[in-house]
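@channel sequence for tomorrow's demo:
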Amino acid sequence: MTNRPVLWTSDSAGAATKSRSSVKWEATGVTIDSRAVAPGDLFVALKGPNHDGHNYVPQALGEGAAAALVNADWADDKSQNLPLMPVADTMNALVDMARAKRAATGAKFIGVTGSVGKTGTKESLSAALSKLGETHKTMGNLNNHIGLPLTLARLPDTAKFAVLEMGMNHTGEIDVLSRLGRPHVAIITTVEAVHLEFFNSIEGIADAKAEIFDGMEPNGTAILFRDSPLFGRLSAKAEAASVRRILSFGTNADADIRLVDSSLHASCSAATVRIGNETFDYCIGAPGIHWVMNSLAVLAAIKALGEDPVAAAATFADVRAPRGRGAYRNVALPDGGSFGLIDESYNASPASVRAAIAVLGRTHPKQGGRKIAVLGDMLELGEAGPGLHASLAKDLIAAEIDAVYCCGPLMKSLWDQLPQTMRGGYAESSDGLVAPVRDVAANGDIITVKGSLGSKMAPIVKALDGLATETASRASGA
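structure tokens (generated this afternoon):
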């Protein structure tokens, strides 16, 4: 049994998808992953180019799924006693369910997009809003054409706020997400040189991000980074989409939410912010100027919703960088001592790598330890890729990083620019760095691992974490 509220019944799902189940059921969750089925879930069997969810329907029902949403042609020869909801196309049906949830709710919706900072902003905003009322949010990285409908289909009827992360790497993708989510408030964290492989210019990226304005509710508010050279372009896009109000954030003197001062430390950040005639201080439990900027965007959203930014700022002390996105932990070594590990293995862009380097530069290794950067390729940068990688050398030098390990053909451009004294090691792929980085970790070191998801830096993080397991095993005498 579950204490989760009912999200869908056979009748409500049937009304949303214009279909009918021969068996009555109630679902307390929605999932597309048979491996993550919880008792009471509605399992949506999506058919993709590599996997067909219909192959896992028996498994999902066996794990306690209340029902399965399936394609009608697949259900034709199945037992009428099974809790199946047959539809013409399960992906379209999931979108129909999302649209029905969005139409029926009284929640306020905040859409979050941007080249960097989407997830951190989403998490910080969700934490602040949860103090004001039930808040629903995008889980993990479910920010695309499948993830956003799934997030909406999971919306509880009792939610007061919903925070939707919207990602893209092609023109037109955010337009679809925005028209489905219909945000009351839209945040563009910033626009940077990411996905250049699919765009002719950074202005093209800005225009694609500005698609978030296309589906906004009437009288909505756009929140933009005032320090960006693209602020004027984004403001014009918002006005052209009939966005009623624009709030800006940043260090610019004209920003509505203005950063007056900041103090950056190895494990946290502090900020002094001015909104209107009020100036106040707060702490953020994550290090780096990028987290400070995320917090300004959150305060702007809180203000746009008519809530108290000062009260919201008090929640930032509990913010922590998530695993793969800057999470810090101490790892015990088998021969004694420990080193610090900053896990940035989930994604990378020029802006986010510079931010990670700056954070590492501000750390204070103990007992003669070193600052070590382990960097993998930043992907989807097109022809600009080699130059953007090479340009990181000056950031590493300025941050006084002691040793740099690089992997991937693009990072070879950075490797070639590094001073001999900073070169730790180079490999064509991340596999070639697993053993060298693991072997070099020493007491007092602080190691940052950063790269695009496709550059597969997670195995390096896993190998470093494995040193703690080895230490525990030795301690237990195993």
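heads up for whoever presents: The longest strand covers residues 257-264.
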